Amino acid sequence: MKLSWEPIDLELRTTFRVAHGASDVRRNVLVYLDEGVGEAAAVPYYGETQEGIIEYLKSVTGLGDDPFDLDGVLSKRPAGSRAARCAIDAALHDLWGKRLGQPLFRLLGVNPANVPLTSFTIGMDEPQVMAEQAREAGYPILKVKLGGEEDEARIKAIREATRAKLRVDANAGWSREQALQIIPRLVDYDLELIEQPLAVEDVEGYFWLKERLRALRVNVPIFADETAKNAHDVVKLAGAVDGVVVKTMKSEGIREALRMIHTARAHDMQVMVSCMVESSVGVTAAVHLAPLCDYADLDGPLLVKNDPYRGLEYDGARVVLPERAGLGLERR
Prior knowledge:
The protein has about 325 residues and is α/β, with parallel strands linked by helices. Helices cover about 35% and strands about 25% of the residues.
């Protein structure tokens, strides 16, 4: 199988701000394995760059010629860029489906009608700016980026602007003490869940936080995102969080993302499938997993002006999977 790649600069519709910084362009890489295609998202706070992803891809040799030996091919990926390893995985799954003439969701045995409604992301900004964006978005579910000094004012302004369901994502922006102080106040604004309140490596902090929130009778669900990169991480978090966020860019692809979902279910945890700032290539790959999940945060293509492919479609907050073979992508 021939491996090749193409750098792609995704222009964002609005400046995207999270606790780690802001960007107007995301410099990703499209990866091809014969006629299969995947995407590597260069996420700065994961230490990924477009240049680093391409350097990794140059080092990959000997993946073999059998696209049906999924685990065998993926085991030949060298250690390195998670995003690049994910893109190879996605391209392989796309190729698998195309060679069999079936959409991936059929090969996975899932029902595309069971995809949860997706949220739409409101990036960090001044409270009134975020409130106006929330009002204009018109989505029934909003994911609000927090992790700064004005967090309660941000949520207050948004809640005054909309009755949409609100999910909060702190992107590891709070300390233990900050989380314990602000979460009981935020729940007054009727939140559906809170994502990644603590530092990435602070697994014990989630047990600490759960115990203290329980003592305060604060019952908002807590989900781990950056702290849960693979199935092993899910096991470590069992009993400390209510759910985990699955992203193919973290898990290095669809194969490990499936293991994360099944591991979470075995530990009575809920699952949200999500994405980075990605085009329809990366997000469509993730959508094939969505029928297995409780929540979806798959708005990446909605944030991008120059999406290079057609794949998933949006009917408001409803996500529609393509019926075409493989991931179901078409070049624009």
